[in-house]
Each structure stands twice: as structure tokens, then as C-alpha cells.
Amino acid sequence: MAARRPDPAARAGRGRAARGGAADGRPAGGQAAGAAGAVAAGLPVAESPTAALIPVMTQICGAAGVVSDPRDLATYECDGLTSHRTAPGLVVLPQTAGQVAAVVRACAGAGVPFVARGSGTGLSGGALPRSDGVLIVTSRMRKILEIDPVSRRAIVEPGVTNLSVSKAVEPFGFFYAPDPSSQVICSVGGNVAENSGGAHCLKHGFTVHHVTGLEIVTPDGELVWLGDGTSAAPGYDLVGAFTGSEGTLGIATKIVVKLTPLPEAVTCLLAAFDSTSAGGTAVSSIIAAGIVPAAIEMMDALAIEAAEAAVQCNYPAGAGAVLIVELDGPAADVETDRAAVRELCEQAGAGEIRVADDPAERARIWAGRKSAFAAVGRISPAYIVQDGVVPRTALSRVLARISELSAGVDGVRVANVFHAGDGNLHPLVLFDDSIAGAGEAAEEVSGQILDLCIKAGGSITGEHGVGVDKSRYMTKMFGEDDLDTMQLLRCAFNPRNLCNPGKVFPTPRLCGEVPGVRRAPHPAAAAGEVDLF
Amino acid sequence: MTTGAEVAVALAGTGAVVGEAGPGDTVAGVVPACVAYPGTVDQAAGVMSAAAALGMTVVPRGSGRTISWGPPPARCDVVADMTRMDRILEHAAGDLVVRAEAGVTLGQLGEVLAAKGQRLALEGPAAATVGGVVATGAAGPLRLRYGTARDLLIGITVVRPDGRVAHSGGKVVKNVAGYDIGKLFAGSRGTLGLITEATFRLHPLAALTAYVTSDYDDAAAAAAAVATAAASPLQASAAEIDRPAPGAPVRVGVLLEGTASGVSERADRMTEVLGHGAQTSLLAPQWWAQRGEAAAGPVGGTLIRVTFWAAELRRVLDAIDAVGADAGVAPAVGGSAGAGVLQVSLDAGEDPDQVAVFVRALRAATGHGGAGDPAALARGSVVVLTAPAPVRASVDMWGPVPALALMRAVKRQFDPGNTMAPGRFAGGI
User: ipTM > 0.95?
Assistant: First the structure.
């Protein structure tokens, strides 16, 4: 949550991050060379632990793969959650799994914490760097290594963007199903860390349902395959346990993904209602009728107003809520379901209903929904994006409580955009950051919304993750024994807690025995791929 | 050494029903000291604490149908039988979610869900318990479209070996708060702790289901048909094969589910895809799901699960034939070919030494014979699920397992005393 936008600094931060990834060949090595120069000149070097790693990192990743200039480091100070910022001690941009392993080994050897980062689009600060640590950016690892259409599998590197997988497999009649809204730029490696969903996960599932094998670098620098690419690997389901662990169990360097046959037909309905509760009735009756749409999205009046101002999406005038229902699948089934959904929406009191079958018309319907987050900037100077989940049947009740909450706080309004099909709310808490105390009031409302979600039997996060942002809420959702048990898994993979420390859990657990240093030379070093020291 | 009677007294103090172990309670030939039947999570926690205090080993049990699958436990003092925990705690029909105690049976659950037009898309015998289905990871034909227990499980309650009760996930489908401990327990075969409750995502019952079937003399043609069906936009829910004996025709069956008009239309089109005089029926063919881990009948002989990337189907079928001929055994094969999971069964009358030869040769022929190079993607496995005692003695049932060192580390963290079903899992865990 708490992605406060529009915030000029935040926007600049994001822009720099994107450019840095593309043009990082240029000044990156400068500082490394400078440090080496200082050493050569016999000048005293008051070295921080990360500065001490510059020579070895330069050996592993090349001068162009190491960023140490403070101005360049600032590019990486936050991910999509711009309210938390820390410039990393050092940034490396490895290009191979062997390099990632060597980097991690160097960090582990020096006792320096490290954090992995994909495209930096995460919304919970999961890739927030450590000033005393190394940020390992996977954006240069963007090869699609294998496409096997008969097995319906592809193997990709972690920096490959989500949408580019679907584009690459489209000629074979497939797509990669998880589709987070940031799919144009977000990376598959980041999706694995966060177990990303998207609007269409209602029917198609999350990242964890579409990943069957992971080559990872363990927190002590070993390269290991989890799973075997089939859906029934022997032993514990470490692929499932790793997916969604927010970068705290290791770094994925190769990912085996399932490919899904492209649906024969896709259709989209937009229905306008007087209120979100009438829209909610339509959602309930669609589910009760045994229909599983690909997506069911809802926006309330304030969100519609914002989208209208931003992209002139031309949604039905005066609507208190719009519902977008997308159906996909075999043509005949989609046709039957479309007629049923239309009727159920009418019964629930829908005014205008629009139907779109071709991609251009569908894109017009989705335009308003997709622009909604950014669009609230048109109607509010600042805002917080919240991510909470309630059981679908509790939607109307919880929305009513949210509206009571915000009505009681001066200067705070809440616009609602949500994945109605799975009860995943994205309340946008709007406030004016030029008014003293408004930000705090908005934070308060935002936190109370999470309390409502927990009380209703839901979750503090449906897709953005816990990261640094929500670790303090974990104790509200889970008991001490629950969290302690989760950390047993962390201790099995990451006993020294050097791998993305400070994320997910409010307090780290001590892991007891810590395995000693590795005995055999690293495979990449043994193979001559990298020279460690 | 604590006696069985002493264990029983200690466990009875927890409120759980405790009985003496009879001949029906052996676990792969190992006789436990007693059987505890907890009726609540608190009692289950009490049983685990008491067992831990006495240094006793525990093997969890559901319906018991597959309790003897896999290697025998190194020791088994207490069987924790979950069948008294048989309450469906919450069926939130509007949310397509059900929360059930571990001892609830698939049959019992299916009836309650069907009354609301819903189902749990996991197959198994009616007597199988949800806890058992999660713990074994067993699945049937629907795995092609819906996956296995790990894909449908959204929340879990477990008792750790030290008696502490832990939850993960919840009762909403979309939830990324915290680690997903349910994934670790799915398929863990009782080696990490005791599953007491599970929450699942449900699906609506389809208005119509149809089976399109065809027989192929040639394994290559059958494999091509399966591949086309599984990749087709006609949305197959299952793509199964069955070959009752080496050289016999390969039967192919595709399950279609959906709206009445949609399924009729797709069945016609799938008939064309399969060719070879394919037929459509509203009833499953007799051979459907009869050989797999989710089959209803008992397994007398050796059952082997072979997994592979689906493109390898023809080579796998050929290898089974060739290796069977070399070893002088007659393997029958069937299962979810479209999902890359087959079950090979060998009659109980086969020579145990030759069965062991067959398993080793099949691993070698499919590239899973080595020690398992951690740097290479294995792309499949050959696991002996169950076998007569003489076969077990001469074969490594699990075979090579990727990431075994990490699995051992997980086991050490969850079960530092190694008291949960020791020795039953991959790599001797």
C-alpha cells in the first residue's frame, strides 16, 4: 500500500529506475574504477562492507555490471512503493545464473545482506534495498531459453517481462496466464517472488499455479533446481513454497512456466448499476449460477469520475458503479454464459449494458479500469493504494463500512476499484498532502480498512505482498505459532537471514544451527565461468 | 523403552480415544504400539505433545488405504488416526470455499457440495479423507485442468511435532500474506506434522460432461492425439490413456465439461481431433482412472508413477514396452498422459528381482537413473508408489530427488527429533 502518487519525486524515481535498467552500460563502472584508482594511489580507503566488495563484484559482473556512484545508486532507492526509500550500498547487474551465484557467495562470505530486484514494480517494498547491502538486479537476464509447445512449457530467465512470455508463445497458440497490471514491464522473477496475480487470476490462477520448476541461487550461493518442470516432482513442493516468499528464500535464476492454450473466444460485458451493492448482487448471482468468468472487476462512482477525467472512457453517465465481466473459453460456452451474465445483471438492476467481442472494443471497456489507479491523480493531490481481501459474500458489507470510515474523517475520501470476483479490494485513499496531518489521517483510514478485511475473514494482501509495508500487520492476521512455523521454512533456506532481511516478518526468528561454510568450490568457479577472487 | 501400555496411558490423558494396535494397523509391515484417535485440534495437539515428551514416533493416517505405500517407517510408535475429526466446518457456497477437518471423506464432502451445485476438483475413493489426499498429493484425471491438492488448498491447520498448532493461508482464494505452509504439507506424507484442517477452493459442477474416446494400435498416433487434445482451445478437463498390456492398443479418452450446448459442440469437434472412429459418451469408459493413485480399487502388485514433459509421451510408452520385454515383465500403463503423469502397474505375481530390474532400467531409459545432478533440470521421475515386500527390499522406491539437501533442511527445521513418519519420504527423510 502507501504508493503515494502523484508525487513528483516518486515519479522521477520510477522513471530513473526504468531508464537505468536500459542504459546501465554507461557510467556504472566509473566508481569501481575510481575505487581501484584510490587503492592504487595508496590513499586510505575507509571501506564500508559493500565498498569492500566492489573489486570482487567487478570481477564477477564486469565494470558495466556494478553500480556504486551515489547518484546512480539513488535510481534504485525504491520499488513501486515509493514511500519507502533507501539507497543501496552497491548494485550489481549479473547476466548469468553463475554470476548471481558468485555474487551471493561473495555477499554470504562477507556477511553482507543482499536483496534481489526485478523490474522494481512491486507495491509492498519487497525490493527495498539495504544501505549496508547489495542489490542484485536481474533485469539483464532476459532470455527466453526454451519453448516446448507440445509439453506446454517454457523456460525463461528472471528478468524476462511477463507480457513478453505471452508474446513469444502466441504463435504456438498459447499464453502465459498470470497477468498483473504491470505486465508490460514487470519481470517473471519478480512475479515468482510475489506470487503475482492479475485481473484474470479469478479463473486462471496465480503465478504459483503456472510455475513448475525453478533454478535458484540459495542464500549461501548454491545453484539448485527446485522441481523438475512436471507438475508432480517427487519430494516436498519447494517450488510452491518458494513462490510468493518475497525474495527471502533465495533468487530465482531460471523459471519453468506452464503455457495455457489461447481461448477460442473472449467477450467482455460492461454493466452500470446505481450502487456497488447492486453490482455486488450481480456478482453473487453470476457465481451462484456456476459461471466462472475470467475476470469480474468493479469501480465505484469516485473511481469512475477519476477514470473519466483521465482517459474519457465514456462509461454510462451517472452510474454509481460499473461492473466489467470478461468471459473466455470455447466459443459455444462463452456465448451461453454471456447471455446468462447479461440476464443476471439485468435482474440485479443494471441500467446500461455494453458487450464487446473484438479486441479493440474490449480495450475501450478496459481502458477506464486500467487507468483507474493513475487516474485518481486527476481528482486528488495524493493517495494511498490499499490491497486487502474479503470473502466475496462480505463485499457489500465491507464497502459500506469503508464508506462510513472515510465519511468520518475530514479531507479523506476513498475510491474503490476492485477484483470483485475474488473479493480483492483496492481502495484508493485520497488526501491532500499539502494539508498538515492529512497523510496521517489517510494512513489511519487505510490501516482501518485492513482491520475490516481481517475481521471479515479475509487477508491483509491479495497480490501486492507483505514486504516492508505490511509486516506490522502480520501479527493481526497470524498468531505467534503461525509466524514461528512460517519462519521454520525461512530458517531451512536462509538461516543467516542475509537474503532480503526485514521483509514479510515483523521480527526475525533465530534459526539455531547455522551450517558452516561450503566445502566444494562453487560450480561456476569450478567450471571456469567466473573467477571468484 | 516405553511400553505400549505406558504410551496408551500417556495419550489417553489428552482426551483422544486410544486403542491397542491390531494387525490392521501395521504401516508397511511395521506394527505400532497404539492408535490414537483425536476428535479435536486440541486433542491432536495433546497427542503430538505427549508423543514428543515420550520420544515416540508418529505416523498420521486417514482412511488407511495408502498407509502402506512408500518405504516403511524406520519406527512407528503411534498411529494418529484422523477419522474422528470428520466435521465440515464451513461451506461458504457464495465464496466457493469449504473448510473441513482432516478426517472428512471425499464422499461425505462431495454430497454436501453437490447439494449446492459445487465440487472439490480432487478425485479419489469416496472413503479417502481430505487430510490424506493433501498429505499424499494423490490426484486423478482432473489434474490436467485443476491441478492437485496443492493447487486447490487455500488454508491449512497443522500440529507440529512439538504439539504447537499453526495455520497458514486462510479462507479467501486470493491471499499472499506470509509463506504458504500448505504447499509444503501437500504431498509431505506425514513427515512434517499432522494436518488437522484444510480449506479448499471449490468449482461449480458442470452442466454437462462428456467423454470422447478412441483406440490406437500405434503409440505414436495415440501420443499425437493426446498432445493435440491437451493443447486445444476446446478446454479438455482431462486427457487420459490406458494400455492394459505391452503391445496392446492404446485407449485415449478426453473429458469435456461445461455448458450443455458448449460440451455437445466441443465433443463433436474433439471427435474429429481424435479421429480413428472416436466415440462420444456421457459416461466414463470402463478403464477411466482405474490404474492411478486415485483409483478406488486395492493395489495388489507394484504401482509406479512415471512423470515426464508431455512431449516425451511416445518415448516413455516405448521405453516401458522395451524395458518390460528386457526384464521379462508385462507392465500395464495408464493415467494422465496429457499432464505428463502415468502409472505403470505390474502384477503381484511378477518375479520381485525382475520388477527391480524393470524399475532401474526404466529410470535409466528415461534419464532418471543417475544420482541427480542438482545443476540440471530433471524433467521427470520414476517413483515406486507401492510394491510387495520383496520388491521394496531390492529397489530405491523414490529414486533421485532434486533439491534433496534443501528438503532435508526443511525436515530438520520442522521435525528436529525426526519423529514424524521417519524414513518414509524421498531420500530417506
Answer: yes
